[in-house]
Each structure stands twice: as structure tokens, then as C-alpha cells.
Design brief:
This protein is an alpha/beta fold and 304 residues long. The protein has 2 domains: 68 residues, ATP synthase, gamma subunit, helix hairpin domain (Helix Hairpins, Orthogonal Bundle), CATH 1.10.287; 223 residues, Pyruvate Kinase, Chain: A, domain 1 (3-Layer(aba) Sandwich), CATH 3.40.1380. The protein contains 7 helices and 5 strands. Strands 3-2-1-4-5 form a 5-stranded mixed β-sheet, sandwiched between helices. Strand 2, helix 3 and strand 3 form a beta-alpha-beta unit. The two termini are 35 Å apart.
């Protein structure tokens, strides 16, 4: 049985950990508020550019000869972009993305296809390399506050790999932010963009936009300057970059929310542990006092 001094040292250590987790929770909460503001500002823009791309594609008579709009005949190599964080201590935030990527890779192997790995965040890159997997593209050092330039770099590499035939399809796996307590794993198809249905499949405003068109009887018409074909060629790269940037921001907000929740749970667990250790220390103190009293009584009896 541990001595009373050992129990006191353990209580002191747990209290220090509790203070650290409290500070980390406060930092994560402050960063989460900024991340929520950024994702709230981007979501309407991302939804609007998707609707614009969908409408422009509907207006195009002849789809322009653009590699990003062409579907490869034989899909053999699928690029998987895992969006994780640079740091841990966020519960299952990083591990659930890696598990989702492994499950998707197993599905592809069952179909006779090969997974080509891309990863954003040190945790994702490290997990893949620890499993002996070859990471074709790794992007680190910006997950706490990603910039649009980071999304542009990733989009450029993925688009180049698709155009060069290194991959026949690109999918993005990331945590979709719902609330500090809830983050859901999402998987979106990034490339190819040949089918307009794929562009509108995960568009939050697509159903509302379609309902509004039906209610108006499509009385309004869009005028394009320059021609829709040229506009579509300009929109497609922007759409890819915005989609990746949104995934990065969703992942950032999810990471801060998951870390805040994990640190709060750690504080509660530390409090429970302190209560248990305090109770154990009091019992030991009682036992020591009782033992001393018994020794005094025995000594007094020995003198009589």
C-alpha cells in the first residue's frame, strides 16, 4: 500500500495536470470561436460557387476540352486525401480519419484498385508512414490556421496528378464540423468533375435553389459574359481550391472542438481521481492515528 506521502505526491501531480488541461481547454475554446467564424463565412461562398458551377455547366452546349472535366475510362488508382491535424490530445479526431482512410483503401483493394495516399497534418502523415504506406503528398504545419494558399498548393498537386494520369479519381476524407461535441467523418469526390450531379450532390443550398426555380417557373434567365464554356474553364480550378479550403477549415474547427471536449473530460477525470486519492489519504491518516492511539494505550497498560 502506498504511503500517505506518496498519495499526497500523486494528488499534487494530478492537480497540476488538471491545471494544464484547463488552460488547454481555454486556448482551444478561443481558437474554436475564430475557426467557427471562418467556416461560417466560407460556407455560403462555397455553396454559391457550387451552384454557379452547376448552372454554368447546364448552360454549356459543348463541354470544353478540359482534362479536369474528363472521366478516365479505367479507374485503377484512387487518390485519398486525409485531412488531419498537426497535434494530438484531441480525442479520436485524428484516429477516426485514419481509420476511415484505411477502410476506404480496403474497399478499393477489394475492387482491384490501388489507393494513392495524400495527407494534410503531421498526425495523418505520421500514422500512414508508421503503417508502412507510401505518402505521395504530405502537407504539414498549417492545420491550426490554414490559409487559402495552402489549399491552392494541395489542389495544384492533386489536379496535376489527375491530369498526368497518376490518379484516376480523387477523394477527400475529413471531419465535418457540427458542434464542439460532434464531428462527423465526410468523404467527398473531388475529381473528376465531368458530371454536374456530383457538383450539386453535397450542396447545402442545392435543394433550396431548385425549389426556388420551380416556384418561379424559371422565369429568370442567366446572361453569361463571356461564353459559358470559358466561364466554366475558370470556375473548375476555383471550385477545386474552394472545396479543399473548406475541408481544411471544417477540419480545423473540428480539431479545436474535439480538443476542447477532450480537455474538459480530462479535467473531470482528474477531479474524480483527486477525490478518490483524497479519500484514500484520509483513510490512511485515520489508520495511522488509530495505530498511534493503540500504541499509546498498549504502552500505558505496560506501565501499570
Amino acid at each position: 500500500m502506498a504511503s500517505q506521502k506518496d498519495v499526497k505526491n500523486r494528488i499534487s501531480s494530478v492537480r497540476n495536470i488538471q491545471k494544464i488541461t484547463r488552460a488547454m481547454e481555454m486556448v482551444a475554446a478561443a481558437r474554436l470561436r475564430r475557426a467557427e467564424q471562418r467556416i461560417a463565412a466560407l460556407r455560403p461562398y462555397a455553396s454559391a460557387i457550387r451552384r454557379m458551377t452547376r448552372r454554368t455547366a447546364e448552360a454549356v452546349e459543348n463541354i470544353p476540352n478540359m482534362p479536369l472535366l474528363e472521366e478516365h475510362e479505367n479507374v485503377q488508382r484512387v487518390g485519398l486525401l486525409l485531412v488531419t491535424g498537426d497535434r494530438g490530445l484531441a480525442g479520436a479526431f485524428n484516429s477516426q480519419i485514419v481509420r476511415a482512410g484505411n477502410r476506404r483503401a480496403q474497399e478499393l483493394r477489394d475492387e482491384g484498385k490501388e489507393a494513392v495516399w495524400y495527407a494534410s497534418g503531421r498526425r495523418g502523415v505520421g500514422s500512414l508512414r508508421f503503417r508502412g504506406l507510401d505518402v505521395t503528398g504530405s502537407y504539414e504545419g498549417f492545420t491550426d490556421r490554414p490559409a487559402f494558399a495552402d489549399a491552392r498548393d494541395i489542389a495544384g498537386d492533386l489536379a496535376a496528378a489527375y491530369v498526368d494520369g497518376k490518379v484516376d479519381r480523387v477523394e477527400v476524407i475529413y471531419n465535418h464540423y457540427v458542434s464542439p461535441l460532434t464531428q462527423t467523418v465526410s468523404r467527398d469526390v473531388l475529381l473528376p468533375l465531368q458530371a454536374i450531379e456530383e457538383l450539386a450532390s453535397d450542396d447545402e443550398g442545392a435543394s433550396e435553389d431548385a425549389a426556388a426555380d420551380e416556384q418561379r417557373g424559371r422565369r429568370t434567365s442567366w446572361l453569361y459574359e463571356p461564353e459559358p464554356e470559358e466561364i466554366l474553364q475558370r470556375l473548375v480550378p476555383d471550385y477545386i481550391e474552394i472545396t479543399i479550403f473548406r475541408a481544411l477549415l471544417e477540419s480545423t474547427a473540428s480539431e479545436h472542438g474535439a480538443r476542447m471536449t477532450a480537455m474538459r473530460n480530462a479535467q473531470e477525470n482528474a477531479g474524480d481521481m483527486i477525490e478518490g486519492l483524497t479519500l484514500e489519504m484520509n483513510r490512511q491518516r485515520q489508520a495511522e492515528i488509530t495505530q498511534e492511539i493503540m500504541e499509546v494505550v498498549a504502552g500505558a497498560e505496560g506501565l501499570t
